[in-house]
Amino acid sequence: LKQGKVVLLLNGRFAGRKAVIVKTFEEGTKERPYSHALVAGVSRYPGNITRRLSKKKVARRSVVKPFVKSVNFAHLMPTRYGLDVDLKTVTSENTYGEANKNRPDTKTAVRKVFEERYKTG
Fold first, then answer.
1. Which of 33, 57, 61, 36 lies closest to 118, judged by CA?
2. Counting beta carbons within 10 angstroms of the beta carbon of residue 13, is it exposed (0 to 12), middle (13 to 18) or buried (19 or more)?
3. How far is CA 1 from CA 7, 68, 95, 120, in A?
4. Listing from the earlier edge strand, what are the strands of the sheet with 76-82?
5. Mean pLDDT throughout 14-19?
6. Minimal CA–CA distance to 107: which of 60, 76, 64?
7. What is the average pLDDT value for the chain, to the nearest integer?
8. How far is residue 55 CA from its own chain's centroid?
């Protein structure tokens, strides 16, 4: 599993959701002694957009709700797709620790990256 690979989460709150691998930890860490990956994914996908919708509704339906999470490799199913978005500058294991105050900033930055990618197509 490499950085930028699109995966499906199999267990937990975000089961069935798509995510992108930001960083992998093959050997594990001190806190998590198993192989795992830091993933950024989409918790709530954008809604359908039609021609009739007003600009306000289009803006509201284009919102992406992201999540950033550390997941065991056993709970990831890789797909054949990759995403060419660089999330490594936005997130890291340190900026998204257990009791870190940077969580809202990280999620906001990931949301901007995902929405920009969604709007460009």
1. 61
2. exposed
3. 9, 17, 22, 26
4. 65-72, 36-44, 18-25, 5-9, 76-82
5. 93
6. 64
7. 85
8. 27
Q: How far apart are CA 121 and CA 119, in angstroms?
A: 5
For the residues 36-58, what does the mean pLDDT come to? 90
Contact predicate 43/110, CB 8 Å: no
Computed on alpha carbons and rounded to an integer, the radius of gyration of the chain in Å comes to 15
Structure tokens at 32: 């998590």
For tokens 């709530």, name the residue: 44
Q: What is the mean pLDDT of residues 93-102?
A: 58
Amino acid at site 86: D
Contact criterion met (CB below 8 Å) for 90 and 20? no
**Residues in CB range of 61: below 8 A, 6 or more apart:** 46, 47, 48, 49, 53
User: Is residue 44 within 8 Å of 115, Cβ to Cβ?
Assistant: no
Cα 64 from Cα 112, distance rounded (Å):
9
Predicted TM-score of the model (pTM): 0.82
Residue whose tokens read 């709150």: 13
